[in-house]
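User: Predict Prephenate dehydrogenase's structure from this.
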Amino acid sequence: MSNKERVLLIGVGLIGGSVALAIKKEHNAIIIGYDVKLDNCQLAKKLQIIDDYTENLQEEALNADLIILACPVEKAEAFLEVLANLPLKRDVIISDVGSTKGRILEKAERSFNKEVAFIGGHPMAGSHKAGPGSARAHLFENAFYILTPSRNVKTEKIEKLKNWLRGTKANFITMDSSEHDLVTAVVSHFPHIVAASLVRQVENHASKNEHVNFLAAGGFRDITRIASSSPEMWRDIVRHNQSMLLSLLDEWMIEMNDVRHLIRDGDSDLIHDYFFGAKKYRDSLPVRAKGAIAAFYDLYVDILDRPGVISDITTILFQENISITNIRIIEAREDVYGVLRISFQTEQDLEKARKSLQDRGYDTYISM
Ligand SMILES: NC(=O)C1=CN([C@@H]2O[C@H](COP(=O)(O)OP(=O)(O)OC[C@H]3O[C@@H](n4cnc5c(N)ncnc54)[C@H](O)[C@@H]3O)[C@@H](O)[C@H]2O)C=CC1
Ligand SMILES: O=C(O)C(=O)Cc1ccc(O)cc1
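Assistant:
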């Protein structure tokens, strides 16, 4: 066997694949994938995300220097038990990428002896897409990557894990698992539940009114994008973070009840203050920083409603080798300016596109 270090990736999907690509950029290690979906392993190998895959997890685990769990969190918890019963390498580091940390850390601390360093990990970036086909080496660039080491882990092991993951170009922060589960519940898990519930409410109305579907196609689709994420992943997150989510739901119901009173009483100043408070806080949040939910790298371009303008713009971007992920006319009236919204994968693409289009006389905006 070669003397290169070996990484075992359990769950070869969007996040596992992106972590693997980031490791490959910086390390000459051998990355072996394991996944219940053989197709995902085969695709990942073809895309050179992993070097190879195995159907014998237990055998590969014995040789691994780094093991990363990147499957839904309830499965990850079950794999910890499998790993705990194996004679792993003495200095192995085990980490995960799961969206919840409390139950995983509890299991790790109960299962492993002090030679095994389990360091929870959660890259706070991603998307509603799934599978290795959507994996990107730069997915976590400038994002926060939360680490939740188990109690007995030495600082040098944490530094070693950061070194393994340096190709992500993420900003590492360390916290304990309960703080992690609280903040992620507030900024990510609970908003997902709200997004799903909004979509389900619209669906209910769509069955009674034929216009709802058409009207929900635009902005509503955008603000509820996260409701298209993997149901398996969110099922596990909700089960793992149950108590935090129940307490946030209680808070939300009190808040909604207050809103109900506001609307019922119809006091124009109080209603204004409610929206003003929300706007003030939202406007104070960093615009281009990466948070828990992926930012939209959207550029708005004023366009005259004339034939050929869209192909002119896409040609400019093509010549500049800038890939776009979505393009849409979001406002177009006869004989007046329309607005084209172009979405990019990265901030750099957005800035490059903005410059190229401005140089050719187009008026562009980053937010509307
Ligand atoms: N999607 C996102 O934006 C983010 C997700 N996460 C976390 O990352 C983890 C993975 O999520 P994604 O990569 O988004 O999902 P994904 O669906 O793209 O990848 C998950 C992979 O795990 C595999 N898998 C499922 N059960 C398995 C099992 N029993 N054994 C082996 N492999 C199994 C799936 O076949 C799939 O290839 C989850 O724990 C999620 O909470 C963390 C940050 C962001
Ligand atoms: O932008 C989105 O779709 C997300 O919500 C990404 C996301 C999903 C799960 C996480 O634990 C962290 C980030």
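The chain is about 50% helix and 15% strand.
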